[in-house]
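To make this tangible, this section ends with a sequence with its structure tokens:
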Amino acid sequence: MHPPRAPASEPEARRAIVDVCRRIYARGWIAATDGNVSTLLDGGRILCTPTGINKGTMAEGDLIVLDRRGERIAGTRPPSSEILMHLAAYDERPDVGGVVHAHPTNCIAFSLAGISLAQCLLPEIVFTFGSIPTTAYTTPTTPEVPDEVRAWLRDFDAMILDRHGSLTVGPDVFSAYDKLERMEHVAEITFRARMLGPIRPLAREQIERLRDVGRGLGLPDRKVLPSPCDHCTACPGERTTPAPVPPPAASDADMSAMIQRVTETTERALRRR
């Protein structure tokens, strides 16, 4: 892990959070007062969005400053009840300097359908994420959320929160936003591919080759989850659910008999008209 980028001056950090919030709002990945964003300042202080404010119209002066316990030390609005997630990220990962929690449409839709995005489908995702995990369901605004995400944060920069949204982290707030954008893009591509037909994850050999190339480029060694999908053997580990067995192919004699039956049935139907 690399250390977070040097904290920006507070005015720069305020502009950055407002910029990121407006990008997320414009994309439709938050609505009204949804979502929250934070970044580290010097002295371990945390600049973050407050509760109950529309992120599309929020101004720099609306942001608040917290200490590492989540206590407000500057600003007039109360902190978001989801600030515990942000504190967990900063506690677990000394390399994290920015955190984004949003409600990306396709990512949430996949979690509602019970479909994992952990399959290795695109080379870029193996490089940048390894896998995209979906956490267990937790009750929003409660300590259940940070307790669940802590374990995932040790290995992953981006994750889907079951029925709740997404959490992405990075050395600064723009990096955390870029990971949100990339993750939702993967979800959209996956959704469209599933509409066209069965999807084909990368083979195990292709995944290992990509990881070797990434190491050669000096990229972090991203974790790939074992057996994220039940219908293939692309990923390491054992499948937990047997793959469906296709029905046996019909013989030429069977096909001829079936055609003959259909023809006779059609002719009888025509004669009755």
In short: The longest strand covers residues 165-170. Residues 173-196 form the longest helix (24 residues).
